[in-house]
Design a protein that fits this description.
alpha/beta; 9-stranded mixed sheet; single chain; 13 helices; binds pyridoxal-5'-phosphate; 3-stranded antiparallel sheet; binds iron/sulfur cluster; 380 residues; globular; 12 strands
């Protein structure tokens, strides 16, 4: 393990708190589990998980662009040959192929960043990136130009200009903690950020965008849930989950704990070739989320992050695939397929045409169950 790979060398993560000696047994166990993740090529090679005859230099180049971290939670599944898990976390030589359309900052985070660590694109919501470390590193990461690079991390003090900005812009009603993964911070560090935002009268809701419920479910401790339950703001947690296999018994328990704390739960997934790009995988994923009290919110078409073209299916196929879910799942379990328009132009929902207006003013609707076009008049 190189110095750069070690979670201990980063300013985020539980290591900082070890010096205080105040970690509870639960916290100690999640910190230990985080460090048990696999972080170097040799560990993966020893398990026979790397592509055969793969170029070592290409794999090292992939690792330099984005650290490796296979979470302990995925190891058993990968051992059993579950490619919906392995493809997400094992580096591929294909990552060195940078397509001409791919961008360093695919969704224009930096263009709409009035202060370090802050992205303010929509009037009422703002993103705060409290760390660039994660409990696992996804090979398709849309923020891979910063994620996993410890020198990008901003301390609580360094984020004060961002918080001052949010406080002054009264139109901002929601703070979204993201990164990286905000929940790799220890309770003590997280509490600083939470308390700062809870003190802002303009903020009505606080949202976490996190991979923790499936990457490191043990992080969802009773202490953390207790803290969230006692917030003066409504807390939402949007969990990034891409495969039904991620919903292990531990992960289901973590989600249940969060629900018990009154945290609103939704999910975002990324449509990934070889992971979840077929109907059965999506029915299974969204059905399992719904069954566990998580409303599937967004299915992202993969952003144009560098070295990720092997994860993209044609957008046309993605739209078609989504249209086949209509009528097969409860409406609450069907997320919106979204494209984040490259360059920072915002997220939009894309869907297949299921309506047409006739010249006589009547409407034609495509039946999700009969697959026939039905004519309807709404006269007025
Ligand atoms: C995605 C995103 C949000 C959150 O958007 P929602 O549609 O509310 O989930 C907020 N700010 C930025 C910059 C984003 O990219
Ligand atoms: S958890 Fe999110 S930020 Fe972290 S590597 Fe995965 S996609 Fe990127």
């Amino acid at each position: 393990m190189t110095e750069k790979d070690s979670p201990n060398s980063t300013s985020a993560g539980p290591s900082g708190q070890n010096q205080t000696g105040t970690l509870t047994p639960d916290a100690q166990s999640w910190a230990r589990l985080l460090r048990r993740g696999l972080v170097d090529l040799k560990q993966l090679a020893d398990r026979g998980w790397l592509e055969q005859h793969a170029s070592q230099s290409a794999l090292r180049q992939a690792q330099n662009a984005l650290d490796i971290r296979v979470p302990e939670a995925f190891v058993a599944g990968i051992e059993q040959g579950d490619t919906s898990l392995s493809r997400q976390v094992i580096p591929s030589v294909q990552e060195v192929n940078i397509a001409p359309e791919e961008l360093n900052d695919p969704i224009g985070d930096e263009r709409f960043s009035p202060r370090p660590g802050l992205t303010h694109r929509y009037p009422d919501r703002a993103l705060v990136k409290v760390t660039y470390q994660c409990a696992m590193y996804c090979r398709f990461c849309f923020r891979r130009h910063k994620v996993s690079h410890p020198e990008e991390n901003l301390s609580f003090a360094a984020l004060q200009p961002a918080y001052d900005y949010i406080e002054k812009h009264r139109e901002i009603a929601e703070v979204i903690f993201t990164g990286g993964d905000p929940l790799v911070l220890t309770d003590a560090r997280l509490n600083e950020h939470l308390a700062r935002v809870e003190g802002m009268p303009n903020i009505k809701t606080i949202r976490f965008h996190t991979r923790i419920p499936t990457a490191l479910p043990e992080r969802i401790t009773p202490e953390l849930c207790d803290r969230l339950a006692h917030s003066n703001k409504m807390i939402w947690l949007v969990a990034h989950i891409n495969s039904a296999s991620e919903l292990t018994p531990e992960s289901r328990k973590a989600l249940k704990r969060l629900r018990g704390a009154g945290v609103g739960l939704a999910s975002q997934s990324v449509l990934l070739k070889g992971v979840n790009d077929f109907q059965e995988a999506l029915l299974n994923l969204f059905g399992s989320l719904y069954e566990n009290g998580v409303a599937p919110y967004y299915l992202h078409y993969p952003d144009l992050a560098q070295g990720t073209s092997h994860f993209r299916v044609p957008l046309e196929a993605a739209i078609e695939l989504m249209s086949t879910l209509q009528g097969r799942l409860p409406g609450l379990a069907i997320p919106r397929l979204v494209v984040d328009i490259p360059g920072g132009y915002g997220k939009i929902t894309v869907s297949s045409e299921n309506w047409r207006r006739d010249i006589d003013g009547s409407w034609w609707f495509l039946s999700p169950t009969q697959h026939t076009w039905q004519k309807t008049d709404y006269p007025n």
